[in-house]
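Inverse folding, one chain.
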């Protein structure tokens, strides 16, 4: 496994790498959710590249960029075990050199939900993903359904800027009790972790109500909200039931719908979703 910090060296490695090349972009502190993407990429490609970069431009000024969990040694050991070929782990100056002043803005699909609650977040995401796809030039790039809106933003970006990768979306990996794996779960105390189950439980309730014939989106959102607010540690940022393709909010659930939510548990903000 080759660990590369510079764009120039990565370009050379790309030239001699077996194709197709699969890329899994991450911010590190790897867990089984990341590893599922990596195992899938390993099965489908001649070369697997993983990027590890905590991208400052996707964090708001009051967010956790400084304290975001990092453990490069453990990450590299996991990647080596998984048979990864190339790790791209650039320092910040390599990605954003002095004078950097070009950003990518994805339109409507990035403006709602997370885009509305985390100003500038998707501008940072789209910019770094655009840079990674142009530096690494993968045939396939793997993303998790856990970040459903990010997947839509990346697909739009990839199509609109002719970046030429196949975008592969992989299912959300969960702990046995349903909590979606996230690097931020390490922030949770034992009692907060219990409250964090409210996300998955409310999504399960939504699925149940819908399968029983309930198609009034407000009614489903109200029941989800009641379930979550029963946990005193949980504060809802938003609950949304939206068209799964363009994310416009639905009154009636009459087409494939993304049920998504963001909830603050103490100081930790968690997101999760299901498709109906
Ligand atoms: P991150 O390091 O949080 O930026 O995540 C890197 C990639 O892993 C993104 O495409 C995420 O959607 C994906 N990912 C994170 N958590 C999970 C999970 N629990 N299941 C599946 N994919 C995940």
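Residues assigned per position:
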């Amino acid at each position: 496994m080759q660990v590369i910090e510079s764009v120039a060296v990565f370009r050379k490695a790309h030239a001699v790498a077996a194709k197709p090349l699969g890329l899994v972009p991450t911010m590190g502190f790897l867990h089984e959710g990341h590893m599922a993407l990596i195992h899938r990429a390993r099965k489908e490609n001649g070369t697997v590249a993983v990027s590890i970069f905590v991208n400052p431009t996707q964090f708001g000024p009051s967010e956790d960029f400084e304290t975001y969990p990092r453990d490069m040694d453990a990450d590299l050991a996991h990647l080596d075990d998984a048979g990864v070929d190339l790790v791209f782990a650039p320092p910040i100056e390599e990605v954003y050199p002095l004078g950097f002043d070009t950003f990518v803005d994805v339109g409507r699909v990035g403006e709602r939900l997370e885009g509305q609650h985390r100003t500038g977040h998707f501008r940072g995401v789209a910019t770094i993903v655009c840079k990674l796809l142009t530096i690494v030039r993968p045939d396939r790039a793997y993303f998790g359904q856990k970040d459903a809106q990010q997947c839509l933003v990346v697909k739009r970006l990839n199509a609109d800027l002719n970046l030429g990768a196949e975008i592969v979306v992989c299912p959300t990996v969960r702990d046995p009790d349903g909590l979606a794996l996230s690097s931020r779960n390490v922030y949770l105390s034992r009692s907060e972790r219990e409250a964090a189950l409210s996300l998955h439980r409310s999504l399960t309730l939504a699925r149940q109500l819908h399968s029983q014939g309930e198609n009034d989106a407000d009614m489903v959102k109200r029941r989800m909200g009641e379930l979550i607010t029963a946990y005193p540690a949980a504060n809802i940022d938003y609950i949304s039931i939206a068209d799964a393709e363009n994310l416009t909010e639905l009154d009636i659930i009459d087409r494939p719908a993304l049920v998504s939510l963001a909830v603050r548990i103490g100081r930790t903000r968690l997101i999760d979703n299901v498709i109906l």
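The two ends are 40 Å apart (CA to CA). The chain has a mean pLDDT of 98.
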